[in-house]
Every structure is written in C-alpha cells, then in structure tokens.
Amino acid sequence: MGIYRELGRNPGVLRILASQLTARFPFGMLSIILLLHIQRAYGDYTSAGIVLATQSIGQAISGPMSSRLMGRWGMRRVLSLTSVLCAGLLVAIALVRLPLPIVAGLALLIGLSTPPVTPAVRTLYPRLVPNRQLSALFSLDASAQEIIWVLGPVVAVFVSSQFGTAAGLCVAAAFMLGGGAWFIMSRTVGEVKLPPSKRGLGAVLRYPTVIISTVIGFFFVASFAAIEAGIVAAFSGSAGHGGGGQGSIESGIVLAIFAGGSLVGGLLIGHREMRPWSLLLRIGIVLAGTSACLVSLNIWWLSAVLFIGGLGTAPVFAAISNLVSSTVKFSETAEAYGWIGTGQLVGVATGSALGGVAIDAAGASGAILVSTGLLIVAALCAAVSLRWIPDLKGRTVEPPPETGTLSLPLP
Fold first, then answer.
1. Which of 18, 97, 133, 267 lies 20 to 30 Å from 37 when distance is taken between CA atoms?
2. How close are the terminal C-alpha atoms of the chain, in Å?
3. pLDDT in tens, 281-314
C-alpha cells in the first residue's frame, strides 16, 4: 500500500482524482435515471430503449471528436462548453413534457455534448507522476471510479424513488456542472498542453490495443448496466410500492457491496505488473461472481458472490488504461481514450436497454443472464487478443516516444 501513499505526495494528484470523479459521476447515473424517467412518462421500456439508443449514437460520434478538439482548442474550452450544454439538456428533459421524438432528439444532443472528462484526465496522468507510479495511479483511478459505475445507479435509484426521476436528472446535471467546474479550474488542466494529433480522425484505431480496449470495454461495462437493472428489479417487488422503500435500500446495499469488492480488488491487484493473460483472468473473476447470481436472488447470496466478482472489476479497468498508455503515443492518447470511453458509455446505455427488455420478458433473472452473456463475450475477446497484449513485467507504463523529422545543419 506504500505505493498509494507515494502517489499522494505528488502535487495536484489527489485534487485531480477527486474533481474528475465528481465530474464523471453523472455518467453512472444517467442510464438508469433516463430508463426510469422515460418508462414512467410513456409507460413502457421500449420508449426508454429508443431514448437510450439515440443518446448512445450521440456519444459514439462525440467521444473521439471532442477528444481531438481538446488538442486544437484546449481542454478548458472544450470541457466548459460541453458541460454547460449537456447539463442544460438534461434539465430540459427533466422539467418539460415533450413528445417522444423530440425527447429522442434531445437525448442525441446529450450524447453529442457529453464532456470528454475521461480522455482528458487519463491523458494528464502521465504528466502528474513519475513513470514508475503510473500503473498504481491507473489502479487507484479504476478503484475510485466504482463510485461512478456502481454507486452512481444507487444514488440514481434512491433520488428517483424518493423525489422523482425529474429530480434525479437535475441532480445529475448539478454534479456535471459542479464537478466539471472543479476539474476545469485545476491548475494542471491549464498547464498541460495537449499536442494536436498529426494523423486523421480514426487513425489511432490502427493500434490493435485501442481496438481491443474499446471492444472489451463495451461488453464489460454493458454487463454492469444489465446486472444493475436486474438487481433493482429483483428487489423492487419486495417493497410492494413499485420499487421504492425497502426494495431500493436492499438493491442499494447489494450494489454497494459489489463496489466494495471492486475497491478492494483494485487496491490489492490493479497495480500489479500486467501480463498478456492478466486481462482475461480478471474478467474471469467478474464472470464467476456474476454467473453465480443466477443460483439465487437472496440478498445475502447476491452480496457474497458480487463481492467476489467485484474483486476483478477495477483491475480490468486498470489493465485497459495500462494497455493504452504503454502502446499509444502521447499526442494520440486523448483520441484513444475517447474511443474507449465511447465504447464504455455506449455499453452502459446498451446494457440498460437490454436489461430492461430482459426484465419485461423474464424478470430480474433475465437481466442477470444478459449480464453473464455479455461478460462471456468480453472474456472471449480477451482470449483471442492475447497475441497483441504486451507483457509489461519489468517495464514502466509510459507512452512510446513521438517520432518525427529532425533537421540538421549542413556542414
């Protein structure tokens, strides 16, 4: 654990870590809140799926493009514009009753204006700490981001059940603005200049590691969205009040324990040197815990097996960050993380939509089965990618050097 104490001694690291997590927190809330908000407004999950799908399309387009714009316009300008616009659109959906096609159009704009916080911060990390500490920083970031992907839905369900889904959307917008301002005003964000990429949009996808990370991240995060919907559905009937009260508390407890397992796993495993088979092994841990949920929906059983599955969650995210940082040039890392972030954000929306359809068809177990299937696909992708995953044992995690033409004076 001494490596994490060393991280804290680097100026600005803890502030950047805390502020970017606050700015990214709405990303873990939005899919569940939109799912509930649209379902309650229009009476079916199909409408909610349409809205989530249009949001996903917008995110798929915006991720790489907004990341590249940071190299031209600067991080602060791009992050400020997108944060204000995205938060305003969320409030509009929350407070104004509109026809479904218009809501779908607003959801598309929400996706297009999603603030590129993740690519920004992961591009900053190599400039914040020495190379030997970078793997530990990625691990700490992956552990802490469980607040986003697991506790975010807990907060979303609690606020929505107690105060309504409109309040939930407004809370997400408040986090986006407040956390975004905190992160944007950090001194490091203003000091680090991201060089513009020298190649065209999408050229970074020529790196096999970027393709691998994007595809695996999509299926991996989609599985979380599906199981979170399944856990909420599993306990919504126990309260007898349409998902509020005791049911919300029980689902929140289970998801919090899942997050706790991820936090423990990230701190104990995530910083370890990555071997080619590490990613597959870590996904396998999550798959074992998730598939065991199909045995019983008892709260004690779910808490136990999801804690075990959670031990592999943060280490998977840490492995993906290490994979990109060690193989992609610094000038292209923002776009690389943009593609990966797009894959994960689209995965959240896709997993929520598939989970909602599965709940309508087969109850909570259907969503858990969907989650298990998505993890199996992620594991298969990791297995067939072993030849392209570098062996980082004994190596520092740092971007490869930039190459270019050096002009020398003639004799």
1. 18
2. 56
3. 999 999 999 999 999 888 899 999 999 998 998 8
pLDDT tens track for 16-29: 888 988 998 988 78
Closest CA to 60 of 204, 226, 202: 202
Contact (CB, 8 A) for 111 and 56:
yes
Q: Note whether 111 and 30 are within 8 A (CB).
A: no
Q: At what angle do helices 13-42 and 45-73 cross, to 10 degrees?
A: 150
Rounded to whole angstroms, how far apart are CA atoms 124 and 15? 13
For the segment 222-229, the average pLDDT, to the nearest whole number, is: 88
User: Do 47 and 53 form a contact (C-beta atoms < 8 A)?
Assistant: no
How far is the C-alpha of 95 from the C-alpha of 85, rounded, in Å? 16
> What is the SS3 assignment for 266-311?
HHHHHCCCCCCCHHHHHHHHHHHHHHHCCCCCCHHHHHHHHHHHHC
Tokens of 366: 């259907």
Fold annotation for 9-388: Growth Hormone; Chain: A; (1.20.1250)
What is the token pair recorded at 295? 């045995």
pTM for the model: 0.73
- Of 350, 374, 235, 348, which is closest to residue 291 (Cα–Cα)? 374
Alpha helices in 363-408 (DSSP H): 364-384
- Residue 28 and residue 148: Cα distance in Å, rounded? 5
* In the block, residue with structure tokens 């009040």: 241
- What are the tens digits of pLDDT across the range 96-147? 988 999 999 999 999 899 898 888 887 788 778 777 777 778 777 777 776 7
What's the Cα-to-Cα distance from 139 to each of 99, 234, 248, 276, 397, rounded to whole Å?
44, 31, 30, 17, 12
- Encode pLDDT of 311-342 as tens digits: 998 889 888 888 887 787 776 777 888 888 77
User: Where does residue 393 fall: left (phi above 0), alpha (psi -120 to 50 degrees), or beta otherwise?
Assistant: beta
DSSP state of 407: -
Residues in the chain: 411
Q: Residue-wise over 211-235: b if at least 16 C-beta within 10 A, else e?
A: bbbbbbbbbbbbbbbbbbbbbbbbb
Q: 125 is written with which tokens?
A: 């990390």
List the domain boundaries for the chain.
Answer: 9-388
Handedness of CA 270, 276, 282, 283 (dihedral sign): positive
